[in-house]
Amino acid sequence: MRPDDEAPEGEADNADYVTFDMAGERYAFPMTRVQEIIRMPTVVKVPLGPPSLAGLANLRGRVLPVVGLRECCDMPGVEHDETTRVIVVDGGVPLGFVVDRVASVISIDPAAMESADSVRSTVNSDVLIGVIKSDGVAMTSVLDVDRLVGSQFDQLAARVGRTESTARVPMSEENDAESNDTLELVSFAVEGQEYALPIDQVQEIVQAPTEVSHVPNAGSRVLGVIDLRGRLLPVVSMRRVFGLPVTELEPQNRIVVVSIKDGVVGVVMDTVREVLRVPHQLVAPLPSFVAGDGRKSEVESVCRLEDGKRLVSVLSVNRMFDSPEVRSEIAEHQGWEEGAEMPAERVADDGRGDEELFVVFRLDDEEYAVDVDAVQEIIRVPEALIRVPRSFEFVEGLVNLRGTVLPVVDLRTRLGLARCDRDERQRIVVLIIGGVRTGFVVDSVAEVARVGRQVLEPAPELSAEQARVVSRVANLPEQKRMLLLVQVDQLLAAGQAEALADVLAEDELVAV
User: Fold this and answer.
1) What is the pLDDT of residues 59-83, one digit of tens each?
2) What would be one Gene Ontology cellular-component term for the protein (predicted)?
3) Which of 138, 307, 377, 508 is 20 to 30 A (C-alpha) from 459?
4) For the residues 372-384, what does the mean pLDDT come to?
5) CA distance 232 to 375
């Protein structure tokens, strides 16, 4: 912030201003504070931010907070049109102000500027530097960039060198112990039957494109290749692996990218269902008399869920692609021959390496993500929830999850978004917060995605609560996506987590 009674050194000698219009009046920013002027970009809405925040935009690979200047100045908002522009200013970090239209760049005699001390305007005088009154120039109010930023975004500050906040939050000892006693799986459906793959064998899950580039004389299992962020990915049909008829690609189809001995391959599934954490005692190896020759051998174990009413067959990636014929087919489409030394970049793609794995879900048309290690499982929303009287507004109720009571929170309400009607796409993402297993209702679960750490950056601190809950952003300009990364341990404050634990304990006592 600059002092109240004087401008920054050098600004008084600079008589260049960028002028713009709002609500029929002329305003200006000092040219020294303007970085560039752009058209209104596509923005990602951020929950828990100030009312003036329009959202976050991607500006040449950089995350740019965009705010409505009308809202900052207590003016009624208007629809954006072809004349709408965003003036990018230096506010400690780059910040974009939405204005009705940009007029021009003017140079004036400093004597033509009248101090804000003598100005009375409908706009709060605290955000005024002064008023330009010059021949040939419409009366123009010059706004103070620093005061505009400070009045709306107390938490907005440069975070250069703050690497601690970008580090991954380590799992608690309790979570470590639990992860050692559970099997993490991604479940999917093929021809109505539920299967699963160990999550450590899954690199990411992406939506199937409308078509796959077919390759002449391709093998029976390989559909073709797709471009995955600049890399040719061979795509195999799970239906062909199982000897089922292949159907046309549809919007619900997903491609599960898995690591195999000789590289990486995408497998088309009918749908991807849930992320499961299954206790090892519920997983049994396939009986020896079943695991004979043929397709059955690709199933290495079976999970018995919901008291045995739901059986999930766990597949082995190595068994699926173990035959020399299949490996040869895949190798041909990866651009290298079997037996040749693999390029170094392909070897690096086999494990997590410099990547993080996230469960991506949607709320109000925006994409959010949580670290996959924090997700216990993902389940459907039951038809009825047990209501909890006099609880928090965002608590939907309680549900019986395999004999234990699970509190369920509406994540839309928790993040200050409007509620929506229940539908078939909604899911409950089960997390552990403050030692309490808690379910959060989301609009839909999109995928499990691997994101390179080089595209992860701290989220702009637009409000205290937003900075705690939405801590980082995954900026993916090539995919025209921006993922808002949610800090799981901040979804509930300490008092809220304790209150939920008390409600849970009381309900379990009543159940006994």
Assistant:
1) 887 888 899 998 888 888 889 999 9
2) cytosol
3) 377
4) 84
5) 30
DSSP reduced 3-state for 337: coil
- Cα separation of 439 and 397, whole Å? 10
d(C-alpha 263, C-alpha 355), whole Å: 17
- The rounded percent of the chain whose pLDDT value lies above 70 is 72
Q: What are phi and psi of 495, to 5 degrees?
A: -65, -35
Q: What is the DSSP letter of 147?
A: H
> What burial class does residue 224 get, using C-beta atoms within 10 Å of its C-beta: 0-12 exposed, 13-18 middle, 19+ buried?
middle
Place of tokens 């199982």: 242
Among left, alpha and beta (phi > 0; psi -120 to 50; other), residue 390 is left
Contacts for 196-202 with beta carbons within 8 Å, 24 or more apart? 196/276, 196/303, 196/312, 196/313, 196/314, 196/315, 197/256, 197/258, 197/314, 197/315, 197/317, 198/314, 199/275, 199/357, 199/372, 199/448, 201/258, 201/259, 201/317, 202/256, 202/257, 202/258, 202/448
DSSP string of 228-253?
ETTEEEEEEEHHHHTTPPP----TT-
Residue 384: pLDDT band by 50, 70, 90 thresholds?
confident
Question: Could you give the dihedral angle defined by the CA atoms of residues 34, 40, 41 and 43, in that order, rounded to the nearest 10 degrees?
Answer: 100
| pTM of the entire predicted model | 0.59
Which of 96, 91, 27 lies closest to 60, judged by CA?
96
Q: Estimate to the nearest angstrom the gap between the alpha carbon of 415 and the chain centroid.
A: 14
pLDDT of 254 over the 50 cut: yes
Residue 237 pLDDT greater than 80, yes or no: yes
Residues 6+ apart with CB under 8 A from 233: 225, 226, 227, 255, 257, 264, 265, 266
